Amino acid sequence: MRLIASLTSPYARKVRIVLAEKKLEYKLELDDPWSAQPQVASHNPLGKVPCLLLDGGDALFDSRVIVEYVDTLSPLGRLIPERGRERAEVRTWEALADGVVDAAVAARLEAVWPGRTDAERCQAWIDRHIDKVQAGVAAMARDLGEQAWCCGLHLSLADIAVGCALSYLDFRFPDLAWRTQYPNLVRLVDKLGQRPSFVQTQPPTA
């Protein structure tokens, strides 16, 4: 398998962590989806990373689709329950975490995208999406409570998605005070940060 990804994409990081946790081999192909001619556009008409290229040339895109497929490739450490309420809970956690990332990315692009001048940027748009980020993080903290993991007794995709989302906030929005507000989330993220899959996929600081 070949994974087209960016080292700074939290969606791609989620996929890379799942691949690492499942101990599956793949080739990482770096791409910048914001470049003039991104490689990924040849495989994903939306021009977004990550994109997983399978043997035979088929392409899977959208991180949620990719991680669900990858989780079926090996019985080792299933990250998504097969059925029922537990499955729905894990996927709902993932949707919440991805929604936080969606809002954070929207706010960041409005603030830094070079296609707009400073006069063209909309602070109200940025504030609206930061409000969504903060509401999402508050919901994460409330639902996690004092549990060791988001769902059940073991690591699942829910924890991976939450870890990627909160780490992205640390990376791109260090001024947000989620770490001082939610010690239970800090414990979870710091625990995840000790796993090799998280260490190996840490985005570059520069």
Structure description:
The chain is α+β, with helices and mostly antiparallel strands. The chain folds into two domains: 2-71, Glutaredoxin (3-Layer(aba) Sandwich), CATH 3.40.30; 84-195, Glutathione S-transferase Yfyf (Class Pi), Chain A, domain 2 (Up-down Bundle), CATH 1.20.1050. It has eight helices and four strands; from the N terminus they run βαβββααααααα. The protein has helices spanning 10-21, 63-71, 84-112, 123-144, 157-172, 178-181, 183-192, 196-200; strands spanning 2-5, 27-30, 51-53, 59-61. A four-stranded mixed beta sheet has the order 2-1-3-4, with helices on one face. The chain is globular and about 55 Å long.
Features:
206 residues; alpha+beta; Glutaredoxin; Glutathione S-transferase Yfyf (Class Pi), Chain A, domain 2; 2 domains; four-stranded mixed sheet
Overall average residue pLDDT: 96
The fraction of residues assigned to DSSP E strands is 5-15%
Number of domain units: 2
- What's the level 1 CATH class of the largest domain? Mainly Alpha
Secondary structural class: alpha+beta
The ordered H/E elements are: EHEEEHHHHHHH
CATH fold title of the largest domain:
Glutathione S-transferase Yfyf (Class Pi), Chain A, domain 2
Q: Do you know the CATH architecture of the largest domain?
A: Up-down Bundle
Estimated radius of gyration: 17 Å
Shape: globular
Order of adjacent strands in the largest pleated sheet: 2-1-3-4
Query: Regarding quaternary structure, how should these chains be classified?
Result: single chain
Q: Report the sheet with the most strands, covering strand number, pairing sense and barrel closure.
A: 4 strands, mixed
Which percent bin holds the helix content? 40-55%
Termini separation: 28 Å
User: What is the helix tally?
Assistant: 8
Number of strands: 4
Low-confidence stretches: none
